[in-house]
Amino acid sequence: MHAYRSHTCAALTAANVGETVRLSGWVHRVRDHGGVLFIDLRDHFGVTQVLCDGDSAAFAELEKVRSEWCIRIDGTVKARDPELVNAKLPTGEIEVYVRELEVLGAADELPLMVFGDQEYPEETRLRYRYLDLRREAMQQNMTLRSDVVASMRKRMWDQGFREYQTPIITASSPEGARDFLVPSRLHPGKFYALPQAPQQFKQLIMVSGFDKYFQIAPCFRDEDPRADRSPTDFYQLDLEMSFVEQQDVFDTIQPVLTGVFEEFGGGRKVDQEWPQISYKDSALWYGTDKPDLRNPIKMQVVSDHFRGSGFAIFAKLLEQEGTEIRAIPAPTGGSRKFCDRMNAFAQKEGLPGMGYIFWRDQGEGMEAAGPLAKNIGPERTEAIRQQLGLGVGDAAFFLGGKPKAFEKVAGKARDVIGEELNLTEKDRFAFAWIVDFPIYEQDEETGAIDFEHNPFSMPQGGMEALQGNPLDVRGYQYDLACNGYELVSGAIRNHKPEIMLKAFELAGYGEEEVKSRFGALFNAFHYGAPPHGGCAAGIDRIVMLLADEANIREVMMFPMNQRAEDLMMDAPSDPTSDQLMELGLRIIPQD
User: Fold this and answer.
1) What is the pLDDT of residue 174?
2) What is the distance between the terminal CA atoms of the chain, rounded to a whole angstrom?
3) Could you give the strand order of the β-sheet that contains 366-369, starting from the edge strand earlier in sequence?
4) Among 94, 126, 334, 591, whose Cα sits 20 to 30 Å from the Cα of 135?
5) Residue 475 CB partners (closer than 8 Å, separation 6+)
6) Mean pLDDT over each residue of the chain, to the nearest integer
7) How many CB atoms lie within 10 A of CB 355?
């Protein structure tokens, strides 16, 4: 017999009754029934109930074991009495009578219990992650993650892609976040960087003549943490293709992700039609570039109804350049109680409040109610109702100012309204491509132009587009949103050196700086670079959605905490004096 097991803890059935077997695993739960010990023995695959009484030579030793001891048992498979069969377990028809026991690894008093649903502080869970990972939900999440990655790989190979690896130690490159720098021992005073993404390398692979590339790529960014973002590293399905247009990339990644969500989505609906929404329209309709389309609410501009109206706050606001009033329709939200609740929400978000109108039936027909309705009068109110397509029992909320100042709050309000009024459809994955991103933005204080999005994107219209107002330039750049999260980001690349120089020039980068910071890419574009484009899909977020988790740390094996610390491995840690000396570094104490 094998040294540790003849079967896993999920393998035994009624067909094994009478057999002598060997199992190894962890003590999940111990129950003492007065001279008879019942133990749920658990391994990665499942649970088997084992039992022992005073007639067994192993009884005295088995009495000593506690939760999470790792043990090996030899015993005989017995059929459970019919009334004791556990239909919820694959092994529920049998139990194993223990005749021999070996303790493989005893456990100290546990800082957190594996059995049960008790919640523990994040600090405890991360410090003892190896115990936290033993819990059933975490085992399922990590198995799901592994299966999703395997499915992605297969689907990419099936589409004619090959997997190539790119360097982990490279040069610093602006990708929208701070780099993790690595000091060089052989070149004192110089630093490598961990790649924020394989961006330049995958483009160079296309220039090298490889038609289709993909990689399950680790990426490193020194970012502030969020529930859906790791502060240090993450993995993405990275792909690039030559001789393609934007739609070709969409047509490539859609069946991969559709297949993954259908395979692992637990029967939830997966949208087959993925609309393409411009960045401008997405901001207007949803207040974000990663909209949750399960929520049917679309915001609209209603400025004309408030110009010269009796509501002085909005009327005066609209006299300022670049301002507008937007309405958030709220079907079935037509009660003063709900409107007051949403007004309080706006105040918590730092706004003075949120204007509202709701429509009710007073027995003599429909009536518009609320402070706004009284101030602007029935004619304007009715025009707003008709524009928004609302009726009795509905409401609308209003925000005004320069869009960039209130769009984020408006988007949050839309989400809250959809949730509170049960308008957001659950058990569905709703996708949308966000396209036509602006390449540049302007600093309101200094007036300086800089990149708003990926600096390597091809501008729509090529060189000609770069001759006009930079703020009007749109890129062949795109994101894929799903249920309020950005899952994919990509672009058709700028592969012509003269357009690359001009694009960076508009953002204040001189030719020498471009050559210095992006020398390999710039030089390569002088040697017959093909048109190319691609995208990257965030694996952590995809698994988070599939696992129905609200925090990305629940689907990462060994995540950092919110202060970018690894409590289990005690990282970051202080270097030794010898290490600093070898690297030619000195730590300057911070005040």
Assistant:
1) 60
2) 64
3) 300-301, 324-330, 395-401, 355-361, 366-369
4) 94
5) 436, 437, 438, 439, 453, 454, 457, 458, 459, 460, 491
6) 94
7) 25
Q: Give the chain's length.
A: 591
Q: 179's torsion region: left (phi>0), alpha (psi -120 to 50) or beta?
A: beta
Neighbours of 281 (CB within 10 A): 15
DSSP code per residue over 335-350 = SHHHHHHHHHHHHHTT
* DSSP three-state, residue 174: coil
Cβ atoms of 434 and 279 closer than 8 Å: yes
Chain position carrying tokens 């929404």: 277
- Enter the tokens of residue 244: 């393609």
For residue 434 the two structure tokens come to 């966000």
User: What does the DSSP assignment read for 532-587?
Assistant: EEEEEEEHHHHHHHHTT-SSGGGG-SS---TTS-BTTTTBS-PPPHHHHHHHT---
Among 400-404, 485-489, 511-515, the range of highest mean pLDDT:
485-489
Number of Cβ within a 10 Å radius of residue 102 = 15
- What is residue 215's three-state secondary structure? strand
Q: Which of 224, 222, 225, 226 is nearest to 178 (CA)?
A: 222
Q: What is the DSSP letter of 272?
A: S
- Mean pLDDT, residues 212-229: 91
- Rounded to 5 degrees, φ, ψ at 103 are -80, 115
Cα torsion through 258, 262, 268, 272, rounded to 10: 30
Amino acid found at 515 = K
For the record, the structure tokens of 11 come out as 């393998």
pTM for this prediction: 0.93
Candidates 436, 396, 440, 544; CA nearest to 484 is 544
